[in-house]
Amino acid sequence: METNQVNQVNVMPRIGDDAPAFRANTTQGPINFPSDFKGKWKILFSHPADFTPVCTTEFMTFGRMADEFEALNCQLVGLSIDGIHSHIAWLRTIREKIDFRGMKGIEVKFPLIDDIPMNVAKLYGMIQPGESATSAVRAVFFIDPQDKIRTIMYYPLSLGRNFDEIKRVLIGLQTVDNFGVALPADWRPGDEVIVPPAGSCGVAKERVEGSDKDLHCYDWFFCTRQLSKEDVERKLGK
């Protein structure tokens, strides 16, 4: 019985799955997720608890970058195993009292889910008993406009997330969809992209937009082409 309970807690959706649906109360009112945000990218993320220092730095960073995510047609939705009153008090404290690394007066406007019963946290596998049985780990789910899970990240309670990487992943996923390409390690807008499918450069050349001179083959299975930063940015958020 105990094993089944642990396994149930640890269950989480996988990349390519439909995002599990739920209704919840939040600091911005009730939401029906993900259908309320149909047509948008969604980042659903969890933090261990309100009024904790690592989480405070993360929420200040998300709050500071909120306009950047909105410009990418992305809705942020946060969660912890705390109630609405705790969330509101914590976010007020962040706005009125915390000055960290030049960030101050940060107002968090995206919804923060009340999940005291841990229903959503369990639904998304955010409770990992080896780390904590009563707090959510730092999970990040990237969900596309068709409500499919595209990327999952997990961090332990003690390690704050890399927000440059979170934004890079979102831009990368949109670029993959917009141009039908794959992206190499450490890719940034303006870098060369990988031309699919792997197979032969002859096949790849037929799929490349533009002239053959833009194609560079490292070997028969590995061809790239340049994709300008301007072209990438022109389609972001779509």
**Main β sheet profile:** 5 strands, mixed
Overall, the morphology is globular
So how many helices? 7
How do the SSEs run, as a string of H and E?
HEEEHEHEEEHEEHEHEEH
Q: What structural category arises from helix and sheet content?
A: alpha+beta
Helix content: 25-40%
Radius of gyration: 20 Å
- Give the tally of β-strands: 12
Could you write a compact summary of the structure shown?
The chain has 238 residues and is α+β, with helices and mostly antiparallel strands.
Describe the overall structure.
- The radius of gyration is 20 Å and the shape is globular.
- The longest helix has 19 residues, at 53-71.
- It is of the alpha+beta class and 238 residues long.
- It folds into 2 domains: 2-162, 3-Layer(aba) Sandwich (Glutaredoxin), CATH 3.40.30; 180-235, no CATH class.
- The protein has 7 helices and 12 strands.
- The protein has helices at residues 2-10, 53-71, 84-97, 119-123, 163-179, 201-207, 229-235; strands at residues 22-24, 31-33, 41-46, 74-80, 99-100, 103-104, 112-114, 138-143, 149-155, 192-194, 215-219, 222-226.
- Residues 1-9 and 199-211 have low confidence and may be disordered.
- The protein starts with a helix and ends with a helix.
- The strands form 4 sheets. It has a 5-stranded mixed beta sheet, covered by helices on one side. Strands 10-12-11 form a 3-stranded antiparallel beta sheet, covered by helices on one side.
